[in-house]
Amino acid sequence: MSTGVARHGGPTYRSGKWFQGDSINAMSSRAWLRSQGHSVAMFDGRPTIGIINSWADTTPCNMNLRGLAEHVKRGVLRAGGFPLELPVMSLGETLMKPTTMLYRNLMAMEVEECIRAYPFDGVVLLSGCDKTTPAMILGLASTDIPGIVVTSGPMLRSIRGTEELGGSSGLWKAYTTYQTGAMEDKTWREIEGCIGRSAGHCGVMGSASTMAIVAEALGLTLPGNAAIPAVDSRRLALAEESGYRIVQMVAEGLVPERILTRAAFENAITALVAVGGSTNAIIHMTAIARRAGVDITLDDFDRISRRTPVLANVLPIGSRQMEDFFYAGGLPAVLHELGDLINPDAVTVTGRTLREQCESAENLDPGTIRPRTNPLREEGGIAVLRGNLCPAGAVIKHAAASPELLRHRGRAIVFHDKADLAARIHDPDLPVDASSVLVLRNSGPVGGPGMPEWGMLPIPLKLARQGVVDMVRISDARMSGTSFGTCVLHVAPESAVGGPLALVEDGDEIELDVDKRTLTLLVSDEELARRKERWTPPAVTPDRGFTWLYRHYVEQADKGADFAFLAGRTSAAEPMYQPTDQ
């Protein structure tokens, strides 16, 4: 009979439901592992550790994960565990269209289902590029299996000669210069070969770096994971230690529910603000909290942002890059500087609290990580807006905006969708000036689909040539964490489902007041009601596959753009297919 007890004694593990006993199912599970050359001693009575890898040729940010997996295996074996690596869907931001955000939920579902369906007692999640980290955490948060995250790490700083290019953030600025004719073709082509100099994700505080920091601040990684450069040998050593630690976590029963508490989310939001992180993290963290059964809202982000100073002098709101951030001490140094702003009760994968872990951290470069007594900004750089144009909220990264535009009134120039924007934005006859408010709709979760990173609308060339570098821009889209400018994002409800953004017309006055946290369409309620009666939803295509599923079931940005049917966690203790004696 299938006893659920190791053949040679010792602890009982979840994986024993696959491997132990004399049923035909247990025998076949063992036999096919032995076909790979594993002896029975490798998996009999040992915890089985899944190494879930998002490495792919299509995801350059994650190219080093293939090698990192081997170091994780080394750590698992050193601790007495049995490692099994498997690939999952990989989301490559640079190549995948229209956006990897469209497929974040699909990857999260795959990670969750793999954890449930395979004989894993614990998992190590290997991620890197923007959406791979939140997708993996979403999958893990939905289960009760111990897990630890290892990210790919940032690439080396981008340099051309002796000029710091500023990574992806610098690329946006260089492209505007190139478009206006102020940069030679030769220089533009040379920059192409200097922006990405190594393996790893973007080397500034974009979405990938931000989500690595969020993962560390949530307590899901070993200390220091977020900032170690991808090509630094210390990342290999951290991967090995993560493999070693997950075996101990299995023995301790240190499951996500004990780590992903409200205290952990408040710490992660504090860290997000202190490093000047990407607005994309708001959507991901909201979704993760809903999976974990923790009530986090947009108001929590605004409240914590108001109390938390920005300490990391890292692009796009500062001047340094992630490589510098690592040398300065990384996230542990930031957390140490934040002191009593970090909740002392949040447990991490080490078994210690986050505050305990950073007590001895050093700030080795106060120019890159500012002391709390001399912050880059006194108040956090993210604000949540409310008003008749965004009843369910909108966000702005005001730390990356132009101060003179944070209180602004202007007339709308409306673009129906991305195609309309592309066709007209640089038209010399477009009736636009520097005071205009550019509005892009049908770019949210349903309208995009997938809420693409279109929120940093381009400056019309005729204005750029006049020296205009920023304008107020409003959309239901996201923007890259490497982007900048006075961009109001994540307007909810989105226009494609009939949100007020759908009712804006050319010439309407819009008022933005970041201090008051308001975004107002200066049109009467009666007129908006008349417009709503005339409104018809945009055509939705395609009518098949995952995109169909996504558009029918995705929630709005303020709910994390997740699927409602995935909220909350459930047990993964029992295998999907119960072994029998037949």
What is the topology?
Elements (H helix, E strand, L loop, with lengths): L15 H4 L4 H11 L5 H4 L4 E6 L11 H14 L3 E6 L13 H17 L4 E6 L4 H10 L5 E5 L7 E2 L2 E2 L2 H13 L5 H8 L14 H12 L14 H20 L3 H4 L2 H13 L5 H13 L5 H10 L14 H7 L1 H9 L15 H5 L23 E6 L2 E8 L9 E9 L2 H7 L12 E4 L20 H4 L7 E4 L11 E6 L16 E5 L4 E4 L3 H10 L10 H9 L29
Parallel strand pairs: 1-2, 1-3, 3-4, 9-10, 10-11, 11-12
Antiparallel strand pairs: 5-6, 7-8, 8-12, 9-13, 13-14
Helix pairs in contact: 4-10, 5-6, 6-13, 9-12, 12-13, 12-14
Q: What is the count of structural domains?
A: 3
Question: How do the strands line up in the largest sheet?
Answer: 7-8-12-11-10-9-13-14
Largest sheet: 8 strands, mixed
Structural class: alpha/beta
Mean pLDDT: 93
Q: Helical residue percent? A: 25-40%
Number of helices: 21
What is the number of strand segments? 14
Under CATH at level 1, the class of the largest domain stands as Alpha Beta
Radius of gyration: 24 Å
> What's the CATH H-level homologous superfamily of the largest domain?
Response regulator
| % residues in beta strands | 5-15%
CATH topology of the largest domain: Rossmann fold
